[in-house]
Amino acid sequence: xxxxxxxxxxxxxxxxxxxxxxxxxxxxxxxxxxxxxxxxxxxxxxxxxxxxxxxxxxxxxxxxxxxxxxxxxxxxxxxxxxxxxxxxxxxxxxxxxxxxxxxxxxxxxxxxxxxxxxxxxxxxxxxxxxxxxxxxxxxxxxxxxxxxxxxxxxxxxxxxxxxxxxxxxxxxxxxxxxxxxxxxxxxxxxxxxxxxxxxxxxxxxxxxxxxxxxxxxxxxxxxxxxxxxxxxxxxxxxxxxxxxxxxxxxxxxxxxxxxxxxxxxxxxxxxxxxxxxxxxxxxxxxxxxxxxxxxxxxxxxxxxxxxxxxxxxxxx
Length: 316
Hints:
It is a single chain. Helices cover 47% and strands 13% of the residues. It is built from eleven helices and eight strands. The protein has an eight-stranded parallel sheet with strand order 3-2-1-8-7-6-5-4. The longest helix has 26 residues, at 5-30. It is globular, with a radius of gyration of 23 Å. The N and C termini lie far apart (53 Å).
């Protein structure tokens, strides 16, 4: 039977359409899941109550958190008082928690090579503890290079690559942290440059609502960061009646209680390959005077409200 040109085109189109079905199905399967935020408690938020490492973990779990950020000094104090990594790891498992990140203060970035080498050794020691504990990330702030301006950002990028390579060996990836009060890495543009210039595939940024304001960056710059450049993001809020050059860590308040463009900031994070950990980091003395469980529960509910509002507003 002789087929007309029109019939041939119809048949070809149908065949092509059928061939596309599996591809479309696969693309849908590979499409990033929505509402991909994991809510975490940075234990700084209840640090002022002087609970100690284990009690802080218990409060976080009881409040409903499944993820936390720990502080290396608190962990070290626990170990110095007779605790062990093995006991802590079991406790973390029993509480149903994941340690998402650790906050440490090694001076890995400074110009003084002897101080820097000591900082790298400190970081190596800390990474060893964290890896054993099951924590796969640690903060890498510009500790020691904050008070005086003039840090060469290309040199900082080389130093960041050095600790990223150390992280490859240790199984703990350092997250380049921006500090708004630093005379060097205080803007989103600064840490973006250092991370990109490091040339390492695992370079990540650790940003913060408070520090974006404190350092004078616009939240509009966050779309340049990239979908998979942030694994942990510190969430909090502030009032604009306290200007950036005057605001302090103790002025941080619950997420959603202030005047930060917090919905726009959270929306700009756009998690895709994996969830972004939104971690509540506060140092508020008024909250330190309250019941830590109440503080943790309140913080979690306010974070949930932010995420729900962002999802509804932007149809995430």
